[in-house]
Design a protein that fits this description.
Keywords: Signal
Bound molecules: 2-acetamido-2-deoxy-beta-D-glucopyranose
Signal peptide: 1-26
Distance between the termini: 44 Å
CATH topology: Immunoglobulin-like
Helix content: 25-40%
CATH superfamily: Cupredoxins -  blue copper proteins
Protein name: Phytocyanin domain-containing protein
Number of strands: 7
Structural class: alpha+beta
Pfam families: Cu_bind_like
Order of helices and strands: HEHEEHEEEHE
Domain Phytocyanin: 39-153
């Protein structure tokens, strides 16, 4: 597995970098993709990021998603009585299907979903495998807190 690990790390870095760059530019409209060319979508809509909601279904019905679009994950930080959530990116389809969190990349910790939520901008044209990482994959497996998105290149309007 020596060969695949560095490329995942590289992808992970690009995802983070893309997220930072595009995230930072999101409110200025679209430096990178042209005028009014990005959407901000709250994952799960009114339900937010929560146990038992079918995010596969949500993603199917909410797409397509384009490069530069932003996802917002909303979940309450731990408060002593709730079940905290988080956002991880998994490395491939296999780990996604089995909710295997080994070598997953943490992108939003249990604190980051509060308030206005955790913002993630789709900056790379690869399939993004989003899952909740809590309870060793139980939220992902049994709670349906998983979905994948492959952002499309936004069609040019000229
Ligand atoms: C934003 O999302 C809405 C609803 O899915 C869609 O109708 C609209 O075309 C999208 N806008 C852009 C710029 O992608
Ligand atoms: C979630 O939604 C997907 C896509 O609509 C569907 O195939 C799947 O059966 C649903 N899962 C559950 C547990 O309802
Ligand atoms: C803790 O958060 C949950 C939602 O995640 C909320 O329903 C509950 O009221 C909160 N409890 C306290 C003590 O703030």
């Amino acid at each position: 597995m020596g060969a695949s690990k560095p490329s995942f790390v590289a992808v992970a870095l690009w995802v983070l970098l893309g997220s930072l760059l595009y995230g930072a530019g999101a409110s200025e409209g679209s430096l990178f993709y042209g005028a009014d060319a990005s959407n901000i979508t709250v994952v799960g809509g009114d339900q937010g990021w929560t146990f038992g909601f079918n995010y596969t279904d949500w993603a199917l019905k909410s797409g397509p998603f384009y490069l530069g679009d932003t996802l917002v994950f909303k979940y309450d930080p731990p408060n002593g009585t709730n079940h905290p959530h988080s956002v991880y990116l998994l490395r491939d389809l296999n780990s996604f299907q089995s909710c295997d969190l080994k070598r997953a990349l943490l992108v939003g910790n249990v604190m980051q979903g509060g308030g206005k939520g955790f913002y993630f901008t789709l900056g790379l044209r690869t399939t993004h495998y989003f899952v909740c990482g809590e309870k060793q994959g139980f939220h992902c497996n049994q709670g349906l807190m998983k979905f994948s998105i492959k952002p499309l290149k936004r069609p040019c309007h000229h």
